[in-house]
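Residues pack. One example:


***
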Amino acid sequence: MTTIFDSTDPTELKARENDFLALSRASRPQAAREPISPQWFTFRKARP
C-alpha cells in the first residue's frame, strides 16, 4: 500500500484525497453523508 506522500503531483494527490473521502463517506450512515462543516472539526478538537 502506498502512502499519500509518495507523489508530488497535485492531481494525483487530489485523486487520492477524493478516494479517501469517498471511502470514509461510504462507511458512514446515509444521514451523515452531507459535507462536514469546519465547525465539526473544531468541535471534535475541543473535546478531550
